[in-house]
Amino acid sequence: MNILVLTPLVPYPPHDGDKLRLYNFLKLLKNKGHQIDLFCLTRVKSDLYYENLLQPLCRKTRFEHLTNFDLFFNLIGGMLMGMSLNVSSYFSPTLRDYLKGYWQTEEGISIDVVLAHRLRMAPAAFEGNPGKPVVLELTDCLTAYTELLKDQKGVRFSRRIAAWWDYWFLRREEVEWTEKASGSVIISDSDAQVLRELGAPGDKVTVIPNGVEVAPRGNLKKPGVYREKRPVVCFIGNMGYVPNEEGALWFLKEVWPLVKRAVPSAVFAAVGGQPRKALKDFHNGEDVLVTGWVPEIEPYVKHATVSVAPLRVAAGMQNKVALSLALGVPVVATSSALSWMPPKGREYVNMAESEEGFAGAVSEILLRPKKARFWALRGKRFVLSNYKWNESGKKLEQVLKQATKRGKF
Q1: Is 287 exposed, middle or buried (0-12, 13-18, 19+ CB in 10 A)?
Q2: 259 within 8 A of 356, measured Cβ to Cβ
């Protein structure tokens, strides 16, 4: 198949969340012999430099940077048109015009199916499309996410207002775009259930979880910032992402003082790119480390005593939980961070909601790490057995092939 992939991000480096998911899908489709044209919009200008690294996976690439100026006018236009901010923010007249010409080229004519990664790329996938079938790779249910965010205490007021706005429009948009598409892909059963309850056609929604891969044993050296003989509490992810930032701040303000009271030698490491000032201000280089972007995330997890997912707002599969379990590291997480897991998998995770409960679970692991590691090994076997990239790639390929059989949208 010849596949046009439209995405609102650059899927490199494949460390977390959407980048990890899309990069592995591209790699698996390429290995299956499919031709890929990759068109990316991005809010991060430095990500444009990764185009050369992604070209070996693609027949054709096109990357475009959306500026703050673009974002401002897109949001104003979206509000006037009665659209969600999530979808309207990624409108690009340049991409629209480019696609009009692309569909007349040899590459465009040869396309068999369009893969629109994230709901915000749905308009670009259909506008000017000469009838090529479209598969929406929704990943998460945004309606479920904004419903949690709009009511979450502690979240910045402006973000809650934006979530309120988006919630009401996404309820309609996710269903309408799913109905129009030849097929849709979502990351977890819980997200799929919300979509179906909203009215999305169940026969068009396919659940495809992320896979989990770990580096070969012995290749994960201890990070230099980790202190010798001091237990480490690790939280990984894109720290510029609202739920991660909010979770890290809640943990540092409400939970961490209780942990330090029980285990004074403990160190907390927030590991991941794009931390904002609110989080970076907690970094002291001693018992609180805010690393920013790191080239490899696995060593920070592997050499931690416990991995935490203090997410009070979450949707979809949490790679931070899956990776930690795959590395045999004990995990403490909120129920929101575990909604993607079946009951069997949750048995291997310490679940806590309150400040006291979360601190107690973390402290217990820090004080009795060997006992916690023994239980975590069972979680490792569960994750590695049930979440494999090859299986996920086969499912996506199947969805794309089915879309081509259905023909024009």
Answers
A1: middle
A2: no
Tokens 């974002």 -> residue: 71
Task: Provide the angle, in degrees to the nearest 10, between the axes of the packed helices 157-180 and 189-198.
Answer: 80
pLDDT for 344-375, tens place per residue?
Answer: 888 899 999 999 999 999 999 999 988 888 88
**Is residue 217 predicted with pLDDT exceeding 60?**
no
Is the pLDDT assigned to residue 218 strictly greater than 80? Answer: no
Tokens 């931070």 belong to residue: 320
Domains of the chain listed by start with CATH number: 2-211+389-406 (3.40.50.2000), 232-386 (3.40.50.2000)
User: What sign does the CA torsion over 240, 242, 244, 250 have?
Assistant: positive
Q: How confident is the model over 61-77, as pLDDT tens digits?
A: 999 999 999 989 998 98
Sheet with 183-186, side-by-side order of all strands: 60-65, 35-42, 2-7, 113-117, 134-139, 183-186, 205-207
Phi, psi of 236 (to 5 degrees): -115, 155
> What pLDDT score was predicted for residue 219?
67
**What span, in angstroms and rounded, lies between the C-alpha atoms of 339 and 74?**
33
